[in-house]
Structure formats: structure tokens, C-alpha cells
Amino acid sequence: MTKPIAIQLWSVQEACREDFFGTLERIAEMGYDGVEFAGYYDRSAADLKAKLAELGLGIAGSHIPYEKLRDELDTVIAFEQELGNDYIVCPWADFETEAEWIEFAKSLRVIAEQVRARGLHFVYHNHAHEFKRLGNDYILDVLLAGVHGLEVELDTYWVHHAGVDVVPYMERWADRMPLVHLKDMKRDPVVESTEIGNGVLAVKRFAELAEQNGVKWLIIEQEAFDKDQLLSVEIGLKNLRKMVGK
Fold it and tell me: What are the Xylose isomerase-like TIM barrel domain coordinates in residue numbering (predicted)?
């Protein structure tokens, strides 16, 4: 396995709120290759870039709310360019009606065009609800088919959670998938995420297929915890490295 492994910093948001740069230092000490941002905690792009360089951490991408992309896109792009981030990720959207989803797709076309014109990638991150149907197709398929240049950061956990077979879906969009979220699932007492390697999902298979498909980053994410967040994501990294032989 040659692909770098990043952590989605949403997973350790409590630690980030308490000491953002200290948390980045811990992430580097664990052996992560990079980070995916979920907020900047009032740090400037220049300060963030310098800190990442000091720690030897790369940037897998950044989750930026849709409303900010829609309303402040020029500011967003300028910040990401200064930071040195190539992947702008829309992390969430949900609507009640088909008409609202169609309008959302139109908005994504405008955003994608401007992001790509500035030399960056525009990516959508899925949850489970994008596997509801618009007509005969999944919502996520409608977005990817209808928005030129849009790429996907496939969250394998949520694909499985939606009842969709992950491997064929990864293969379907292999050429539009630069980033992959790896997250494991436990089913007792409830369905929720857990450390990579401590759940029931075929994470090793997903990682191997992502490698074959030429993804740029494997990104660990965890949303539910029964121990310290930093300890959990360290366990997840160690287990993933064992799985992929890295």
C-alpha cells in the first residue's frame, strides 16, 4: 500500500477545540501522513501551512459548509490556495423535495466551474441519505452525472449503512473518487462507528480497492466513541496500517 493516510479532524474535534496545534502535533506523532480539515479554529492559512510543514503533515482536503461555498466562494478559494489545499469538499446537504435537490445540483455546477477554473478540485462527501432515489437513480448518482467536474469523497461506512454494496459502487465511480473515507461499524448495542479494525466492515477490501482505483488519500473518520477520541484514532491508524501492510 502506497497511498497516504489522513485523519478527518472532525473525529477529534473536542481536542481541536481545546488545543488545535497541540492536537496536530499528536496526530503527527501517531504517524498520520496528513489531515483533512473540518474548520480552522481561527488560525490563518499562513500559520496553518507553517505548522503543517513543521510537522511533516500533508493536506488531504477540507470540509467547508455548502452555505459558505455558495455565499463566500472567492474568499474560500483564496484561503485554500494560500493554505496549499487542492481538495475543497462539500461535506453535507439534505433536502426534502426533488426540486430542491435539482436546484442544489445547479448551484454545485456554478461552484465546481469556479473551483476548477482556479486549479482546485471540488468534491462531494456523502452520507446515507444520498442513496434515496430521484426517479430511478440515487441522489448521489444524479449529482455526479449532472455536475461536470464534481468528484466524490466516498464515505464507505455510509454507503454500507444505506444498504448499498460498497465495492461495486466504488468501482462505478473509480475515476471520480480522489478521496475515500474509511470508518468501521459496530452493531452492538446499536449501529455506530468504531475504530478501524474493531468493527464488521470489510475495511481492508475497501482500502485495497481504493489503492487500485488510484485514490490520492485514504482518510480515517470516526464519529462515535467509547474511549478518548485521540486514543481511538491512533488505534484505527495502527489497525489500518496492519491491514494494508504499510
Answer: 24-240
Residue 70 domain boundaries: 5-244
Compute the C-alpha angle 131/136/137, nearest 5°.
40
For the chain, the domain total comes to 1
pLDDT in tens, 1-59: 689 999 999 999 999 999 999 999 999 999 999 999 999 999 999 999 999 999 999 99
Strands 150-155 and 121-125, by their bridges, are parallel
* Sequence-ordered list of residues with C-beta below 8 angstroms from that of 160, at least 6 positions apart, any chain: 166, 185, 201
Cell output for 77: 478559494
Which of 80-100 are b and which e, b meaning 16 or more Cβ less than 10 Å from the residue's Cβ?
A: beebebbbbbbbebeeeeeee
Q: Which residues of 171-189 are buried (b: 16+ CB within 10 A; e: fewer)?
A: eebeebbbbbbbbbbbeee
